[in-house]
Design goal:
Elements lengths: L4 E8 L3 H12 L6 E5 L32 H4 L2 E5 L2 E5 L4 E4 L4 E9 L3 E3 L12 E2 L4 H13 L2 E5 L3 H12 L3 E5 L12 H13 L3 E3 L4 E7 L2 E7 L4 E3 L2 E4 L3 E3 L2 H5 L8 E3 L10 E3 L4 E4 L5 E2 L4 H15 L11 E6 L2 E7 L6 E7 L2 E8 L2 E8 L2 H13 L5 H5 L12 E6 L2
Parallel strand pairs: 1-2, 1-6, 2-3, 6-18, 8-15, 9-10, 9-15, 10-11, 17-19
Antiparallel strand pairs: 4-5, 5-6, 7-16, 12-13, 13-14, 19-20, 21-22, 22-25, 23-24, 23-26, 24-25
Helix pairs in contact: 1-7
Bound molecules: flavin-adenine dinucleotide.
């Protein structure tokens, strides 16, 4: 076992959250030793690009690094490449798979997640791809180039971004979605509809209310996808886009509570006061006991910034307005706030540009935009400031949210 180095802050995971907290600590003047344990064989990189630019033909030589080559060394951040295998809370230390060991005063778990596997026969066949890491994206780019019939399982953000990349290559693309519309968990039917229309216009076939029951191989590689509705779709590439599982095992094995993520309070602290969890791996319990886990860059980096201040003495709870984006071919989908199925909606639409305002008890709680970045940005400021903009104001077509011309407005229920 390696000699134990002592760090003021030890960070496990070199993704967006891990890199941000290391940077924020130094920016805020934290002077003690910071060790960032990066579990991947690459310098920390930008994950959203993996389903966007990294799938372009032109991306082979592109650098997706989050920070420059000397960023960490120049700030006195020790970045080590290792996978942490064990956490020992009694000795305040972690041990890597290769036996190296580090001690900490504060530990930050920023371990992200991994793609959810599909529990069907054939899911392990060659030609079944998932997308979480840079290596996954590089392999997928090559596979997209070679494939003719591509079946994407899951009509969520990642599946649809891959669908757009595949359709741009004029491949035959089918998306199989288990529910009755795209991105159902996170957007209103208005956005699902405009996004579905767009993908269809690119030649993508969308199958709703169907479920994959088997991936059938031919000669050891994927050949077809079978569904519960009795379809057999020819496929030489299958892409899984069925969600993510939080990497919470390190914490769980060390006796920390988990609930589809590492449970933290509103300061992002686990039940062990010396240990925080941030980003995709963190499940935040609010005052009412409800648990939320967000998978977004905004959430990972804002939580990281917040925990940096907590380590330096801030006692405020974490609070930020969530926002998210997804680029699908010519569509830019942006969401700010968190909508619920019961929210009232006000829709402004102008051609291919759409914004949906979600209201609860007359208060604006979320805005979903498609190709309407101006409204998204203004909406972000409105929601961040907590300004009250009620349904009647928004429903007023003359109300100039973005200093743009008035648009057609429909008011209805979100379902
Ligand atoms: C293809 C794709 C596209 C996306 N697009 C968008 C988008 O458009 N907009 C958006 O807001 N969000 C997007 N997301 C989500 C966003 O990337 C994540 O929310 C964000 O990366 C979370 O950051 P994180 O640091 O918590 O986790 P990650 O970025 O997953 O980083 C966690 C790191 O921890 C490492 N790790 C795990 N266990 C260990 C261990 N035991 N030891 C050492 N290291 C370990 C992992 O290998 C990984 O490098 C996308 C995600 C994917 C996969």
């Amino acid at each position: 076992m390696g000699a134990a180095g002592q760090s003021g802050v030890l960070i496990v995971g070199g993704g967006h959250a891990g890199v941000q907290i290391a940077a924020s600590l130094r920016e805020a003047g934290y002077a003690d030793r910071i060790t960032l344990v990066n579990g991947e064989p690459h310098r920390p990189y930008d994950r959203p690009s993996l389903s966007k630019e990294a799938l372009d033909d032109a991306s082979a030589a592109q650098d997706f690094s989050l920070r420059g080559e000397d960023f960490f060394a120049s700030r006195g951040i020790d970045m080590v490449q290792a996978r942490v295998a064990r956490l020992d809370r009694d000795s305040k230390s972690v041990v890597a798979q290769d036996g190296r060991e580090w001690r900490y005063e504060h530990l930050v778990l920023a371990t992200g997640g991994r793609p959810r596997r599909l529990p069907v026969p054939g899911a392990e066949l060659a030609g079944v791809a998932e997308l979480r890491s840079l290596d996954d994206a590089r392999a997928l780019r090559v596979a997209l180039e070679a494939a003719t019939n591509i079946v994407i399982i899951g009509g969520g953000f990642i599946g649809l971004e891959v669908a757009a990349a595949a359709a741009a290559r004029q491949r035959h693309v089918t998306v199989i979605e288990g529910s009755d519309r795209l991105m159902k968990r996170v957007v209103t039917p208005h956005v699902s509809e405009i996004v579905a229309d767009y993908h269809r216009s690119c030649g993508v076939e969308l199958h709703f209310d169907d479920r994959v029951t088997e991936i059938r191989g031919r000669g050891g590689v994927v050949g077809a996808v079978l569904t519960a509705e009795g379809e057999e779709l020819a496929a030489d590439l299958v892409v899984l886009g069925v969600g993510m599982v939080a990497n919470d095992e390190l914490a769980a094995a060390a006796g920390l509570p988990t609930d589809h993520g590492i449970l933290v309070d509103q300061q992002m602290r686990t039940r062990d006061r010396a240990i925080f969890a941030i980003g995709d791996c963190a499940a935040v319990e609010d005052e009412s006991g409800r648990v939320h886990r967000l998978e977004s860059i905004q959430s990972a980096t804002d939580q990281a910034r917040h925990v940096a201040t907590t380590i330096l003495g801030n006692t405020d709870p974490y609070s930020a307005t969530p926002w998210f984006w997804s680029n699908q071919g010519a569509l830019k989908v942006q969401i700010v706030g968190v909508g619920n199925p019961g929210d009232r909606t006000v829709v402004r639409r102008e051609g291919n540009r759409l914004s949906v305002f979600c209201l609860r008890h007359g208060r604006l709680v979320a805005i979903e935009s498609v190709n309407d970045p101006g409204t998204h940005m203004v909406g972000r400021r409105i929601l961040e400031r907590g300004e009250v903009l009620d349904e009647h104001t928004l429903a007023d077509g003359d109300y100039d949210l973005r200093q743009v011309a008035k648009r057609a407005v429909r008011v209805g229920g979100r379902s």
